[in-house]
Amino acid sequence: MANNKSKNDALSNLPEDSLVPLEAILCNEELSRRPSRPPDYETENRALARLVQALADAPRDILQTLADEILNVFKADSSGISLLTKDEKRFYWPAIAGEWKPHIGSGTPREFGPCGDVLDYNVPLLFRHFELRYTYFLPITPLIEECLLVPFYVEGKAVGTIWAITHNDRRKFDLEDLRQLKSLEKFASAAYQAVESLDELTADLQDTQLLQELGARLVTEGNVQTLYQELISAAIAITQAQAGTIQLLDVATQELVMLAMQNITPAMFKHFSRVDARSNTSCGMALQSGERAFIDFDVPESQDPDGSCRVHVEAGYLSAQSTPLITRSG
Questions:
Q1: Regions in the chain scoring below 70 on pLDDT
Q2: What pLDDT is recorded for position 201?
């Protein structure tokens, strides 16, 4: 599949009269009219047993293993998993098996695509030739004959779909296919949560390693300014921020003095290099309260008498948090 940018470009240039209505490509009603195979619980149970073992042995690869099992069990031509991005603007494909495997990592728009339709209807859907409506699929070959999609959930919220595709008319999906794909819904949810937990654990371990390395530097580094810069760099990395500063209190003048900074514009440095410790900046508030302080910069002019918020907004920063540094003596 083309990347998201090229698909969006295709959509923006698409003649509106070339689209067919959603009803023209949905064929759920055909599932009940087609002859259906008897339930194959033995194949289903073997597949689930392999998936459970794979989750224990190689959790990082479990989504791809799930796609492979769907391909095998359903005798499909392609199969995969679509996950909703954190901003809920698109779906991406972390795992695909079969003829569409080269398109791993691609995806579809949330508001205009088959996975979005599944989440909107909140039920499994059977599509035929969805490239007739979603024409960004036209360059993707082989084209689909049918695609059966089932949503899956975490804590009641839909987070993605699992799907199976045929690329020709050698077989048609039936009610037994629907039952079996729905039976994998809970496992898909468990697999998704396992991968999410691993990602969070990896991030935590990286943060811990960063702090350990910084701690070692604190013991051996003789250049205090370098240490300050290392500290602010670590804080920005751990909090996934865009910029940051370290400001220390000048007791004699009762001012906060900027000692280290990262991604701070000249205008910001000029404005904040020395500020009243009792100011309403986030650092000033944190110092006065002894607790972490949060501030939004995108406020009306009447709430920004000294222009401090405007300086941040003009630099592209909309909010900040500050944590007080307190000596052992308090």
A1: 1-18, 198-225, 227, 238, 327-330
A2: 44
Half-sphere CA count of 146, side-chain side, radius 13 A: 18
Distance CA 49, CA 43 (A): 10
3-class secondary structure per residue, the chain? CCCHHHHHHHHHCCCHHHCCCHHHCECHHHHHHCCCCCCCHHHHHHHHHHHHHHHHHCHHHHHHHHHHHHHHHHCCCEEEEEEECCCCCEEEEEEEEECCHHHCCCEEECCCCHHHHHHHHCCCEEEECHHHCCHHHCCCCCCCCEEEEEEEEECCEEEEEEEEEECCCCCCCCHHHHHHHHHCHHHHHHHHHHHHHHHHHHHHHHHHHHHHHHHHHHHHCCCHHHHHHHHHHHHHHHHCCCCEEEEEEECCCCEEEEEEEECCCHHHHHHHCEEECCCCCHHHHHHHHCCCEEEECCCCHHHCCCCHHHHHHHCCCCEEEECCCCCCCC
- How much is the pLDDT for 119? 96
Q: Which residue has the tokens 């906060």?
A: 256
Instruction: Report the amino acid identity of residue 118.
Output: V
pTM of the predicted model as reported, rounded to 2 decimal places = 0.60
State the Cα–Cα distance between residues 299 and 280, nearest whole angstrom: 14
In whole angstroms, give the CA distance from residue 246 to residue 230. Answer: 11
Q: Are 109 and 90 in contact (CB under 8 A)?
A: yes
**Nearest Cα to 68, choosing from 57, 59, 58, 76?**
76
Distance, CA of 18 to CA of 180 (rounded, Å): 35
Q: Count Cβ atoms below 10 Å from residue 12 Cβ, excluding itself.
A: 7
Q: What's the CA gap between 214 and 160, in Å, rounded?
A: 39
Q: Which two tokens stand for residue 29?
A: 């009603």
Max CA pair span of the chain:
87
Looking at the DSSP bridge assignments, the partners of residue 80 are 96, 163
